[in-house]
Amino acid sequence: MSTEQRAIVDAIMREPRPAPRNVAEMRADYAAVQARSPVPEAIRTSETTLGQCRALVVEPAARQHPGTILYFHGGAWALGAPETSLALTAHLVTRTGVGAVSADYRLAPEHPYPAAVDDAADAYRALVDGGEDPARIALVGDSAGGALAITTALRAREQGLPAPAAVVAFSPGLDLTLSGESMDSRHGIDPLFTRELLAPAVGMYCAGQDVHQPLLSPALYADLSGFPPLLLQAGGNEVLLDDSVRMATRAIAAGVDAILDVTAGVPHVFQSFAGLLDEADQALDRAAAFLVQHLGAAGSAG
Fold it and tell me: What does pTM read for this prediction?
């Protein structure tokens, strides 16, 4: 580990920024921050539609291997778009040689729960109905999108759809009761979030609905029997750490092939610092290897 690199990343995430006054300003600020992440050049992009969603297609510029990564962007269910997670999506595409489709699901507060889950599940159904082999589809996402990757697999099972090949979640928010022990133990260590900062985002997304249910707090309430192979990556400094820890524990107890991959001393969605933080590149390499294994792709050099 590079202590210097981790200190630089922590300082970047603690940079003071003017407090946004409304959701529109929050979205603009989030997009500006995410735009700092360099996007690998060896890709090509286009647009399509999945269900009712606009979607961004991200393909490797070189020969493409079979399979599809269905990606869900982060942003606390209220911010972001496929473009704000393009760097992460592109890193996985270039490392695996597998194309991705990133869904532009509806956002809160205009469209609270279950709109995002409905859109994500509809996107998966559209791929299956369009002839994609579920055994060649992986659901992947970061932060809120990581939660959507997991809840999409749960919703697909509810709807009688075949399970995807695998699920990968980077720093997912899987307990909207915000009751994880790391909410307290990582308070102040996490450069981005606290329980108090997360509570308004939960309020916008849930709009008064009970958070004690499987599709809002799957780390506590989801039935994980028959869940597809799961990779959870989290940073040791984030208040959401226990969301992944408890999800992995329950998945393993349910007989799921689950990997909990925690990198010490790094923050929420640290993978977005690829090229600046060695641990980010290494984590993406491990995620790509997991995807290649479960999609049966040949993979390619990152």
Answer: 0.96
Strands (E), the chain: 43-50, 53-60, 65-72, 98-103, 137-142, 166-170, 230-235, 258-263
Active site includes 268? yes
- CATH label of the domain that carries residue 121: 3.40.50.1820
Three-state SS at 129: helix
In a domain, 302, yes or no: no
Instruction: Catalytic residue, from 102, 143, 182, 272: name it.
Output: 143
Q: Could you tell me if residue 169 is inside a domain?
A: yes
74 within a domain of the structure (yes/no): yes
238, 244, 272, 300: the catalytic one is 238
- The model's pLDDT over 242-285, given as tens digits with 9 standing for 90+, comes to 999 999 999 999 999 999 999 999 999 999 999 999 999 999 99
Annotated catalytic residue 238? yes
Q: Is 244 known to be catalytic? A: no
The residue range of the domain holding 88 is 3-295
* Catalytic residue of the set 65, 73, 91, 268: 268
